[in-house]
Amino acid sequence: MIDSALLAVDALTVERGGRIVLSDLTFSLGTGEVLLVTGRNGAGKSTLLRTLAGLLPMQSGRIVFADASDEVRGVETVHYLGYEDALKPSLTVGENLTFWAAMLGPSSPAERGSGTTRSVVEGAPPEVAADLPPPPPPAVPLSRFAREDLSPRDALTAFGIARLLDLPAAYLSAGQKRRVALARLLLTPRPIWLLDEPLIALDVGAQQTLTAIMAAHVAKGGAIVAASHAPLGLPCRSIDLGGLA
């Protein structure tokens, strides 16, 4: 484990539908790092991200977040963006983003805990969990992320689509929907981004914009775990999960 770890995963095993999808997976993610998760279809890339986001249970292992004083605060350090854009067609772009800003809005700094590190999820039985490595040391304070949220218009401007603010989401192209979904990352800043196929449906220009936004995020001490079949366009470590053809 590294001293500036934001996330530590120890001996993670996940079962879905009676099949072991992830087995004994261990890694850590530090401030300013990008981890690219690769693998063929069925490898467990999406399963890993959803498990880290607290959306799927683990069979055994431990997930540890920095700057989290309890389980809820641990999940609040993570921003999960799946391959589905999660936009309500009948609402305008601005209304969709306003909803997500309210849904995902951070708690006040005083409610975020003291910057300690603890286990957020432990899936192993007590006798197994006792043998797992200890959590990483406390990371650098992350309260700076709590006050940098943007308005829906500002977030759309960052992705070059502010003109879509009042347009119903039903009229958006696939690429526009993806950029609106990605704008949620700027509405509610959190240190760890979990991105499932973030480049899907984006043209070359939009991909370059996203790369610049990701680079800015890690430059200020954030971190990214991204599952992608395509290069992200910035320096990263990688994990190959293998998988089915």
Q: Would you kindly provide a written description of the structure presented here, covering whatever features stand out?
A:
This protein has a single domain, classed as Rossmann fold. The chain has seven helices and nine strands; from the N terminus they run E-E-E-H-E-H-E-H-E-H-H-H-E-H-E-E. It has helices spanning 45-52, 71-75, 93-104, 126-129, 152-158, 174-187, 204-219; strands spanning 5-16, 19-30, 34-38, 60-65, 78-81, 118-122, 192-196, 223-227, 237-240. Helix 3 packs parallel to helix 6 (174-187) and helix 5 (152-158) crosses helix 6 (174-187). The longest helix has 16 residues, at 204-219. The chain is globular and about 45 Å long.
Please describe the topology of this protein.
Layout: E1 5-16, E2 19-30, E3 34-38, H1 45-52, E4 60-65, H2 71-75, E5 78-81, H3 93-104, E6 118-122, H4 126-129, H5 152-158, H6 174-187, E7 192-196, H7 204-219, E8 223-227, E9 237-240
Parallel strand pairs: 3-8, 3-9, 5-7, 7-8
Antiparallel strand pairs: 1-2, 1-4, 4-6
Provide the descriptors you would attach to this structure in a database record.
245 residues; alpha/beta; Rossmann fold; four-stranded antiparallel β-sheet; 7 helices; 9 strands; 27% helix; 24% strand; globular
DSSP strand (E) fraction? Answer: 15-25%
Helix content: 25-40%
Number of strands: 9
Any idea what the shape is?
A: globular
Q: Could you give a short account of the major beta sheet?
A: 5 strands, parallel
The CATH architecture category equals 3-Layer(aba) Sandwich
pLDDT averaged residue by residue: 82
Total discrete domains: 1
CATH homologous superfamily annotation: P-loop containing nucleotide triphosphate hydrolases
Counting DSSP H or I runs of 4 or more residues, the number of helices is 7
The CATH topology? Rossmann fold
The topology string of helices and strands comes to EEEHEHEHEHHHEHEE
Rg (CA only): 18 Å
Strand order of the largest sheet: 5-7-8-3-9
Q: Which structural class is indicated by helix and strand composition?
A: alpha/beta
